[in-house]
Amino acid sequence: MKIRLEEERDYLEVENLNRNAFWNVYRPGAYEHYIVHKLRGDDSFIKNLAYVIEKDDVIIGNINYSVGRIDFENSSKDAVVLGPLAIDNNFQKQGLGSKLIEYTLKLAENDSIPFVVVIGDENYYSLFGFESASKYNIYLEGTELDEENPFFMIKIFDETEIPNELGIFHNPDVFDVDENELEEFDGQFEFKEKLILEGQLGV
Description:
This protein is of the alpha+beta class. The chain is built from five helices and nine strands. Strands 1, 2, 3, 4, 5, 6, 7, 8 and 9 form a nine-stranded mixed sheet that branches. The radius of gyration is 17 Å and the shape is globular. The N and C termini lie far apart (37 Å).
């Protein structure tokens, strides 16, 4: 297996991978492939951290990073956010996501990125040194400030870059998905049935 930077020729293959990996997981259908598509043309996209993992010249996983924002009481700071991360359904639970995360986090640290945030499974991301961001008084936009949100996490490389004050994290605008645009974009892919399943968000 080989980890390498994503190239333009990979775009459709990576989008299809994300669509299949996330289909009916968090909601009927999926958003993630469209977010990946939009990210590449957005100022928030960190191109030098967009990596794929391939086997026999077939892409079986990918990872993206982009730049959001934390508004503190007296200042604002750029905040690098991990995701989407996708692994081909046939290769999940084999440690490939871990390989991509560890590889790219090391690159981020070497690039003097002071911290990385992620929204995801706290049991999984804690394996890579992520902690609840509320420990540092940083919260996800739209969540309660008097409750811990364990799914919103941060990995800090340089604690001097974290002010000792309340911070609210905002995802890049590109993560806001217009349903009509999504439907139009999705028309280029093979038809897949959207299902409401137990365990999805709000179900």
